[in-house]
Write a structure and sequence with these properties.
By secondary structure, this protein is mainly alpha-helical. It is built from seven helices and four strands; from the N terminus they run βαααααβαββα.
């Protein structure tokens, strides 16, 4: 198992050509007091704002815009902390890796629990998608230690694209409101779903697909290498 802390980073995402220059500009123009740890805290604050927006959407759908704002805050803090550390040459690889990803896991729990407590997405669907996200996160971290490659993008999709999809979902819930579809399940009764359940569930299935295929492929490769 590798003990290196400067693992090669793979983040080949669709929005990369836009995101990378934006983050570089933000790091270059960041005030001196904005340290990487402060950015990490801002990312967590974004998760708290998202949670609040989803909870308050039970009273008025306009609070979905608060959740949208929270996703931008979360992107700013979570994406900028590492970029800022590298730009200022103040990296602390072990500490940064630990803090960044433990806070990221906690933030995702806030986001998905909040989504499940909003009026338009089933709590069960939100939690199952959270499980898929955490499974993928575990695979990324284990793979980093074993393969010595920190890969957070799969099929050109990464955290930034996930945030964009969440923002689009929030906008859809604001403009289209509650929608329910009933499906007759024979002796099982009637299954009631919303299009938002299907959208969130689809994200969970995609994450689960990446988890299974990557885990199996890497397992087979390692089995051949370690005979």
């Amino acid at each position: 198992m590798n003990t290196r802390t400067d693992h090669p980073r793979v983040n080949d995402i669709l929005l990369g050509p836009l995101e990378r220059p934006a983050l570089h500009w933000l790091a270059a123009h960041a005030p001196a007091w904005l340290a990487p740890d402060v950015c990490t805290g801002i990312g967590v604050l974004g998760g708290v704002i998202i949670l609040a927006g989803y909870l308050l959407s039970n009273y008025h759908p306009a609070f979905f815009w608060l959740a949208v704002f929270g996703f931008f805050v979360n992107w700013y803090g979570d994406s900028l902390d590492g970029t800022l550390a590298r730009y200022r040459h103040i990296e602390r690889p072990v500490y940064g890796f630990y803090i960044d990803h433990t806070t990221d896991a906690a933030t995702q729990v806030l986001i998905f629990v909040g989504l499940g407590l909003s009026p338009y997405v089933s709590f069960n669907v939100a939690c199952l998608t959270l499980v898929a996200y955490l499974l993928m996160s575990v695979l990324v971290y284990v793979r980093t230690c074993v393969i010595d490659e920190f890969k957070i993008s799969y099929s050109k999709l990464g955290p930034t694209e996930a945030r964009l999809l969440a923002v689009l979902l929030n906008i859809a819930m604001f403009f289209f409101g509650a929608r329910q579809w009933s499906v007759q399940m024979g002796t099982w009764g009637t299954l009631t779903l919303s299009p938002y359940d299907l959208a969130v569930g689809a994200v969970g299935l995609i994450l689960l697909y990446f988890f299974i295929t990557t885990a199996v492929q890497e397992g087979l490769r390692l089995a051949k290498e370690n005979r």
